[in-house]
């Protein structure tokens, strides 16, 4: 097992999940329940399952497609998202409308 990769993955996911909506839901549920331990095990199990499914899906896709093609697809996808956010998101939302 590559311990460096394991540590890097753990730190990356740990930092990205801090303050996430799943953390806020776990805080709200444990504050209202009589069994915060059950909330912990439920939230931990759900995170483990989604991480396992993501890793399995990523491994399967990596087996089917060459690495160069996957990188190109990811780059194009991020470029499209960036362009949409920068160029086509000028409409005011319902929350930001000013009252006269």
UniProtKB/TrEMBL annotation:
Q: Does the keyword Lipoprotein apply?
A: no
- A Pfam family that this protein carries is GDT1
Question: Which residue ranges traverse the bilayer?
Answer: 38-62, 69-87
A Gene Ontology CC term for this entry?
membrane
- Which terms are listed as keywords in the entry? Membrane, Transmembrane, Transmembrane helix
Q: Where in the cell is it found?
A: Membrane
Report the membrane topology from the UniProt record.
Multi-pass membrane protein
Q: Where does the protein principally reside?
A: membrane
- Return the InterPro entries for the record: GDT1-like
Question: In Gene Ontology terms, what is one molecular function of this protein?
Answer: metal ion transmembrane transporter activity
Per the record, the similarity remark reads:
Belongs to the GDT1 family.
Listed name of the protein: GDT1 family protein
